[in-house]
Design goal:
The complex is a heterodimer of chains A (487) and B (487).
Chain A (H helix, E strand, L loop, with lengths): L1 H17 L8 H22 L8 E11 L4 E9 L1 H19 L8 H20 L3 H10 L1 H11 L4 H30 L4 H4 L11 H15 L8 H8 L2 H26 L1 H27 L4 H21 L3 H32 L10 H4 L1 H14 L6 H14 L3 H25 L17 H19 L2 H18 L1
Helix pairs in contact in A: 1-2, 1-4, 2-3, 2-4, 3-4, 3-11, 3-14, 3-19, 3-20, 4-5, 4-6, 4-11, 5-7, 6-7, 7-9, 7-10, 9-11, 10-11, 10-13, 11-13, 11-14, 11-20, 12-13, 12-18, 13-14, 13-17, 13-18, 14-16, 14-17, 14-19, 14-20, 16-18, 17-19
Chain B lengths: L1 H28 L3 H24 L4 E3 L4 E3 L1 H24 L7 H18 L5 H19 L5 H32 L4 H9 L3 H22 L8 H7 L2 H26 L3 H27 L4 H21 L7 H34 L10 H4 L1 H15 L5 H15 L3 H27 L12 H19 L2 H11 L5
Antiparallel strand pairs in B: 1-2
Helix pairs in contact in B: 1-2, 1-4, 2-3, 2-4, 3-4, 3-10, 3-13, 3-18, 3-19, 4-5, 4-10, 5-6, 5-10, 6-7, 6-8, 6-9, 8-10, 9-10, 9-12, 10-12, 10-13, 11-12, 11-17, 12-13, 12-16, 12-17, 13-15, 13-16, 13-18, 13-19, 15-17, 15-18, 16-17, 16-18
The chains are: A mainly alpha (487), B mainly alpha (487).
Chain lengths: 487, 487
């Protein structure tokens, strides 16, 4: 079943590749159908997931590569625990949304949707792979579709941004590869299940260095200040759908990797590093939020807010406890949906107004009430209003960390105020205020694909906000063994 | 009876040499291009089949009183090099029209050099090694100058002069060894090396250095790479491809044979391991950094081949202290050579096809090639992605495998140099991809490959993906072959 979910997008790609040129506009239907099937299957798995059981479920394991001289054994090993289950559903949801909001893509649509599906495949693979090398392979595959998607279908300095994205990621993963090989040699296996039951004290490099090698790639991806500079560029210049995937799912690869690899395989070092995680988390929160305040470009604003929000994830991880880690997992899920939705809305505005400069926009609620309402919902969720998804995760993170890093947590809470500031200010400037004659002719979001995408995400935001257990429980089962290791 | 078996073991090479003679002689009477091409392909096929039967009949053993040996290692290279020759011949069919009257000589020389290269992996006696080195070298000097224009002649002359110098250095090293041991057989030399005392040790090390310097020319590693860019640029493109994979593979074969067999003793192997580690680090770095500034794609691939040789030398440096000693790095080198052969041949085939039409090797002229030749551009992209080492390609597995061997030999620093170099290399490899997919084409005229180049491209792309996704077959084969060197 997991293999089906992960590799089903390849079928879509094959069909798209076989479409004759004159029917290339149909590729979006193929992509949508593919993404829909993946979503249905992922939700089915989510329902079938046994929440009373920790550990990995739906495991599929085959020997893939086995070299006995070099102890070079890679297993084809897929499985999900609560944490990866949540990420899997998130990826499938945003994968469909990304296809829907790309409905108007006219430029080389065959290639576009094929790359988008390949991206989805690699992300699904990252979240389900339980062999470290397999994980790394999916992690690397993701680079190529991103490179093409940003540099061909992006806007502005798209080529530069695509480069920057690829380089930062590749640079980080280079270190990860070294760490992975050293780890694999020390442990004699790449099986993450076994690795996270072992005590690794003896490797070719000190375990602290090993921890650094491994976390570096994840830190770039999350991103952690000062390795965040790729993010605003890539987000701003990417097409809307790619921004959605980038903010919604790709950043989570960083947080997921830290949890799955760094914290659970090297818990001893993680305990030493916890305070650094907290410091970097708070710096991220505050720096991100402050920079967000001065942004004049709508998309860049959301991009910087992501840096701030990923700081919460880092802070939650630094707690090393049940509540904090669950909060971090929740924050990854909710931020994925909320920021995904924010990028969708910004994309809709840009598609109509052809500008993202906040200074030029005003009173758009008059022309596009529906977009405005959804934007307000997403904004409020993002600043953590109770009854919406963002609230739950932030509360859990602060509760989890306060006992451990009191002063830092208090500093972090300031971030909430700043978030409220930039979100509300942005909404006020763009959607409220005087209606401008220049924007008189703009229409609301009326197309079915726009509405489907919006409604689906708003529904998830409220569902998780009102009944957080639906996701929180499942994440909790996922982090439980990790917490056990860290205790 | 014994002589007959010896001849039998030499069969694969004899076929090539015999056909080379026949082709040149027939050409005096009938000049038909298809005849020449057909018979040279037939020769390679015959050679491959004969090698296959040697394997099937289990004819492993030594021949001609220990000049030559047929073992898993030499069989591996016989298959590899004959395969390379076949692809080079396929790639030459369209190109060789430029040589008008001298086509027969061209193909005959490819066959003789292929025979020489195959023998390089099989000879175990210094005299024999020297003779086949010359056989290979002289054939290639002529082939490089075959275009007879200024650049090609310059390249040929340069290759000849530097080649002669390197041969002299090699010979000097061999002479030292002979002086020490009184024998030209690698087996006898190994015994003397193992028994070396402090007096003779210096001479052994000196001989080793000379051999590395002389054979480094064939492998094209820094600092013996000076000839590479000019020769690669000036030579006929199929010959450039041939040099970059065939000659390099043969160079590595003979180096492995000499160092693992003659210098295999523990007392000395750590010395040359360090030397190779240094060569590897410098080669990777110089090759990659200089490649960045290249504007001519053949020159760029020249520097890239220096960098790739650096990755390969990592495998030579990787001598494990554990059981199995050399076979760890050796199987890494062999796996990498096959992956690299498919990848680089694919890249050159695409370049030949494209430059046949646009008459330029400038990267700038590849603009918009994705529109003019979608399949070729996709194939070239696959090759470049594989050279960068991004999954799911052969290049990725090869790199991980060879780095894994290095980690197990406690060469973590070298692996870090290697992975950082991969990041650098992404810049110039992907720049070509960028040109092809992003820039506007200079004209809309279609560029097509023709059947023979198309077939070569299909073989290369298929190989890249096959090894990338299902590497275990090749892994098993190269490990079996590597066990020849128990160490």
């Amino acid at each position: 079943m997991l293999s089906f979910i992960v590799f089903f997008p390849l079928l879509g790609i094959a069909i798209i590749a076989l479409l004759p040129r004159e029917r290339e506009r149909d590729s979006k239907w193929v992509a949508a159908a593919t993404a829909f099937v993946v979503l249905v299957a992922a939700v089915g798995l989510f329902v079938a997931f046994d929440r009373d059981q920790t550990g990995f479920q739906f495991v599929q394991s085959h020997t893939w590569i086995s070299g006995d001289i070099a102890h070079f054994d890679i297993q084809y090993l897929l499985g999900v625990d609560g944490l990866s289950m949540a990420m899997l559903v998130l990826t499938a949801l945003l994968g469909l949304v990304a296809v829907l909001i790309s409905w108007n893509i006219d430029l080389r649509p065959k290639e576009y949707f094929a790359w988008l599906l390949l991206l989805e495949m690699s992300l699904l693979g990252v979240f389900t792979a339980l062999d470290f090398l397999l994980f790394f392979i999916f992690w690397e595959i993701e680079l190529i579709p991103m490179y093409f998607l940003i540099s061909i279908w992006g806007t502005g300095r798209k080529v530069y941004s695509a480069w920057k994205y690829v380089f930062f990621t590749f640079f980080g993963s280079a270190f990860m590869l070294v760490g992975l090989l050293v780890l694999g040699f020390a442990a004699g296996t790449f099986d993450i299940r076994l690795l996270s039951q072992m005590e690794i004290h003896d490797a070719l490099v000190p375990t602290h260095v090993l921890f650094f090698l491994l976390i570096f790639g994840f830190a770039i991806k999350l991103p952690v200040f000062p390795f965040h500079t790729w993010l605003p560029d890539a987000h701003t210049d990417a097409p809307t759908a790619v921004s959605v995937m980038l903010a919604g799912v790709l950043l989570k690869m960083g947080g997921y990797g830290m949890l799955r690899i760094c914290l659970s395989i090297l818990p001893d070092v993680a305990r030493d590093a916890a305070v650094w995680l907290a410091i970097f988390g708070v710096v991220n929160i505050l720096y991100g939020a402050l920079v967000t305040l001065v942004q004049t470009d709508l998309k860049r604003l959301i991009a910087y807010s992501s840096i701030s929000h990923m700081g919460y994830v880092l802070l939650g991880l630094s707690a090393l406890g049940q509540v904090g880690l669950t909060g971090a997992g929740m924050q990854m899920f909710t931020h994925g949906v909320i920021t995904g939705l924010l990028f969708v809305m910004v994309g809709l505005v840009y598609e109509r107004a052809h500008t993202r400069q906040i200074g030029e926009l005003s009173g758009l609620a008059h022309q596009m009430p529906m977009v405005a309402v959804v934007m307000v919902i997403a904004g409020l969720a993002s600043l953590g209003l109770p009854s919406m998804a963002g609230f739950v995760s932030e509360v859990m993170i602060f509760l989890g960390t306060f006992g451990k890093h009191g002063a830092l947590t208090i500093l972090g809470v300031i971030g909430i105020l700043l978030t409220a500031g930039y979100i509300l200010w942005m909404i006020q400037r763009v959607f409220l205020g005087e209606s401008m004659p220049r924007w008189e002719g703009l229409g609301d979001a009326t197309a079915w694909w726009e509405r489907t995408a919006m409604i689906a995400m708003v529904a998830v935001i409220f569902l998780v906000g009102i009944y957080p257990a639906v996701v929180a429980d499942i994440i909790e089962t996922g982090v439980e063994p990790i917490v056990g290791r860290l205790a | 009876m014994d002589e007959l078996a010896s001849v039998d073991r030499l069969g694969p090479e004899l076929i090539l040499l015999a056909f080379a003679g026949i082709i040149v002689l027939t050409d005096l009477v009938v000049q038909r291009r298809w005849l020449v091409v057909g018979s040279s392909l037939l020769a390679v096929a015959g050679s491959l089949i004969w090698t296959g039967t040697l394997l099937a009949r289990d004819m492993r053993g030594s021949a001609f009183d220990g000049l030559l040996v047929v073992d898993n290692f030499s069989l591996f290279f016989a298959f590899l090099l004959a395969g390379i020759a076949a692809v080079v011949i396929l790639a030459s069919i369209d190109y060789s029209e430029r040589f008008s009257r001298y086509q027969a000589e061209y193909y005959a020389l490819i066959l003789t050099s292929a025979a020489g290269m195959m023998l390089l992996a099989a000879t175990v006696d210094l005299i024999a090694i020297f003779i086949v080195l010359e056989l290979t070298g002289i054939s290639l000097y002529i082939l490089v100058a075959f275009l007879k224009d200024i650049r090609s002649s310059e390249a040929g002359l340069k290759y000849l002069l530097l080649g002669a110098m390197s041969t002299a250095v090699t010979l000097y090293g061999m002479a030292l060894l002979f002086g020490l041991s009184g024998s030209t057989s690698l087996d006898d030399i190994a015994k003397v090396v193992a028994a070396a005392n402090d007096d003779t040790r210096a001479a052994v090390v000196l001989a080793m250095v000379f051999l590395v310097a002389g054979l480094g020319f064939k492998m094209a590693v820094v600092p013996f790479q000076m000839w590479v860019p000019d020769v690669y640029e000036g030579a006929p493109t199929p010959i450039t491809a041939y040099l970059s994979v065939g000659s390099k593979a043969a160079g590595f074969a003979v180096v492995m044979r000499i160092f693992f067999e003659a210098f295999g003793d523990r007392s000395i192997s750590s010395d040359w391991s360090n030397m190779f580690a240094a060569v590897a680090a410098i080669s990777m770095t110089v090759g990659n950094v200089v490649a960045i500034t290249q504007t001519n794609i053949k020159r760029m691939l020249g520097y890239s081949s220096i960098a790739q040789a650096g990755y390969l030398v990592v495998g030579l440096a990787a001598i494990s202290s554990a059981e199995g000693g050399f076979s760890l790095g050796a199987s890494g080198v062999m796996f990498f050579l096959v992956a690299y052969a498919f990848t680089n041949l694919g890249a050159f085939v695409a370049i030949i096809a494209i430059s046949n039409r646009i008459n330029s090797d400038e990267i700038g002229d590849y603009a918009g090639m994705a529109r003019r030749a979608p399949l070729l551009a996709l194939g070239l992209t696959l090759c470049l992605v594989s050279l960068t080492g991004i999954p799911p390609t052969a290049g990725f597995i090869a790199k991980v495998y060879i780095f894994n061997a290095a980690v197990q030999s406690d060469l973590v620093w070298l692996v870090i140099v290697g992975v950082l170099n991969s990041v650098v290399s992404a810049y110039y490899y992907l720049r070509v991809v960028l040109q092809m997919f992003l820039e506007a084409p200079a004209s809309e005229e279609r560029v097509s490959a023709g059947p023979s180049l198309g077939l070569a491209m299909a073989i290369a792309s298929g190989g890249i993906l096959f090894i990338g996704i299902l590497p275990f077959l090749l892994l098993e084969v190269s490990e079996t072959a590597a066990r020849t060197f128990g160490g």
